[in-house]
């Protein structure tokens, strides 16, 4: 009985954590779904500032960039890709400002540049 209870408790806990993560961070694949108000980014029609990731696609089919947001501001590791899907630029942002290194890669994934902020 104790084993069953422990397994059930763990399963419920995992489900609860997954639910929280699903509701707290969202992935948006259409820039048109977002709008800026008072210096922060929002999903159109919503009152809470956007927290999640904006995926920007070019020509409707290839991932150009991944932009993380926290409380309506770009915050986290932003990535830009070459058309072949290889990472082109990687930079960390905190409250819209670059911090640390900006890494630049060629179309084969070789590091070709690095700039410190």
TrEMBL record:
Matching InterPro entries, A to Z?
MORN_2
User: This protein is called what?
Assistant: MORN repeat protein
- What species is given as this protein's source? Fusobacterium nucleatum CTI-6
